[in-house]
Write a structure and sequence with these properties.
Blueprint (H helix, E strand, L loop, with lengths): L4 H47 L3 E15 L2 E9 L8 E10 L4 E5 L1 E5 L2 E5 L8 E2 L6 E13 L2 E11 L6 E4 L8 E11 L5 E11 L9 E5 L9 E2 L2 E2 H18 L4 E3 L18 H4 L4 E8 L11 E3 L7 H14 L10 E3 L2 E2 L5 H14 L15 H4 L27 E2 L1 E9 L3 H9 L1 H16 L1
Parallel strand pairs: 1-9, 1-21, 13-16, 13-17, 17-22, 18-20
Antiparallel strand pairs: 1-2, 2-6, 2-7, 3-4, 3-8, 5-6, 8-9, 8-12, 10-11, 11-12, 14-15, 18-22, 19-20
The chain binds zinc ion.
Zinc ion binds next to loops.
């Protein structure tokens, strides 16, 4: 075939020109994007330099521990004496600062100890920084030392280095309008210059979908299967708790929360292990766990009343709210039980001296070493102790071969956990309420959650 010169002129040359222009446009765009990216990095670096502008270059605060219990981040650390020489500290604060230098301050508890000044955010593990309230983006954490001389306030700003055995944490905010943020607790390095660098702690929050197996709240229906729990007349605790768990799940899901159950039928659930009652809250990254139970007394009839159990190092406001609301909504009453009572309707049960002694004797009898950490400060109920990881002194490590180990006992992130003894099954008044006022009990719990989370 002979090529027509006109065809080349009219079609091929314009195509060639268009192709060359297209390639040039792509290259130009590439350069543009590269420049833009480089500019962004430069802007970011400039902003970060501004954030670190006042930070001490050769002094640092050390972190012993950081924990997340429920929704709250807590920190625990110290500054060595040589770094605070000649500083008369009047207050200490944790500064949480974003890349645009907007910041929040949290008061720190501090005390002078040998060789150092120790600080912590809160003695209550369910207080500290509410991770749901952290805005999107990167936030830098600093320790601010305030001193007052002649009524004049001055301060020093310390960066934070991680001396704990934990490397990072990952948390998902409570589901709201079907949305979640992933919040990471991380450690990094800032360069003052090529030679001068400093460690720092940061919180990074960004939009993320909740992992498939993750949830906000775990509801645990006590007992089940071969373990019917307390019994009275023809009623079994295990049946009532399961019915309540189903309905509570439904109510919370209507509010938009993702809810998981530890059991959804009449079956026996192990306490520990990966799929045990104490393991599910960790596995599902739940922020809150409520274990539903009914009480009973050894004597034939009980006076009845509500008992909400919590760990011994908590702000008890939420537990109190649940107890108060149940009494109010069901026209019920607080339990008359005075043992381990912290407030009306709120109980903090730890091991007694006698129970520690018996546990140690049992260990000897079974041929394993006694648990080193067990003391009168250890929460007694496993649904409170083993769910809270190191914050609540979880200790089931497999040395006792009659039970599975709790693989999450050393975790520094865990669910906030409460055990609700809604009423006494062997109190006619309570039983009547439990059978006829389910909605009131559940609304009491749901309203407590709403007021606690808002
Ligand atoms: Zn029970």
């Amino acid at each position: 075939m002979k090529l027509d010169r006109n065809l080349i002129k009219k079609i091929l040359i314009p195509i060639l020109i268009i192709a060359i222009m297209a390639i040039l446009a792509v290259i130009y765009n590439y350069i543009l994007i590269r420049n833009e990216q480089r500019n962004l990095v430069l802007v970011e670096a400039k902003k970060e330099a501004k954030v670190f502008n006042e930070v001490e270059k050769d002094k640092i605060a050390c972190l012993d521990l950081f924990t997340i219990y429920g929704n709250h981040l807590n920190i625990n650390g110290y500054i060595s004496n040589e770094d605070v020489e000649n500083v008369d500290i009047s207050s200490m604060k944790l500064v949480v600062e974003d890349i645009d230098c907007n910041y929040d301050e949290y008061n720190l508890e501090f005390s002078k100890e040998e060789g150092k000044v120790a600080f912590k955010l809160s003695s209550n593990i369910n207080e500290g920084i509410d991770l749901n309230k952290i805005s999107d983006g990167k936030h830098f954490l600093f320790i601010k030392l305030v001193s007052t001389t002649n009524n004049k306030e001055t301060y020093k700003l310390f960066s934070i280095t991680n001396k704990s055995k934990y490397v990072k944490d990952e948390y998902y905010t409570l589901t709201k309008d079907n949305k979640n943020n992933k919040v990471e607790i991380l450690f990094s390095k800032h360069n003052f210059s090529d030679e001068e660098t400093i460690d720092y702690m940061l919180i990074r929050s960004q939009y993320s979908t909740l992992p498939n197996n993750a949830c906000d709240i775990v509801i645990d229906a006590g007992h089940g299967g071969k373990d019917p729990g307390a019994m009275y007349k023809e009623y079994h605790e295990a049946d009532i708790t399961l019915d309540y768990a189903f309905s509570l799940k439904e109510k919370l899901e209507k509010l938009g929360y993702k809810v998981a159950l530890t059991r959804d039928k009449d079956e026996y659930v192990e306490s520990y292990g990966n799929n045990g009652r104490a393991g599910i809250p960790y596995k599902t990254k739940a922020k809150l766990t409520l274990s539903i139970h009914l009480n009973s007394t050894a004597s034939e009839k009980s006076e009845g009343g509500v008992e909400v159990y919590a760990s011994n190092n908590l702000n008890l406001d939420f537990a109190k709210k649940i107890a108060d609301n149940i009494v109010k909504y069901t026209d019920g009453k607080y339990s008359v039980n005075s043992y381990a009572k912290a407030l009306d309707g709120v109980y903090v049960r730890t091991y007694t001296k006698q129970e520690v002694k018996e546990a140690n004797e049992y260990a000897e009898y079974m041929g394993y070493a006694p648990y080193e950490s067990l003391s009168t400060n250890t929460p007694y109920l496993f649904m409170i102790r083993e769910i809270g990881g190191i914050m609540t002194s979880a200790y089931i490590d497999g040395r006792d071969k009659t039970m599975s180990e709790n693989p999450y006992r050393d975790s520094n992130i865990s669910s906030e956990s409460y055990l609700l003894e809604l009423g006494f099954i062997n109190s006619d008044n309570d039983l009547n309420n439990l059978l006829n006022k389910k909605n009131e009990y559940l609304n009491a719990i749901v309203d407590s959650i709403i007021s606690n989370y808002n």
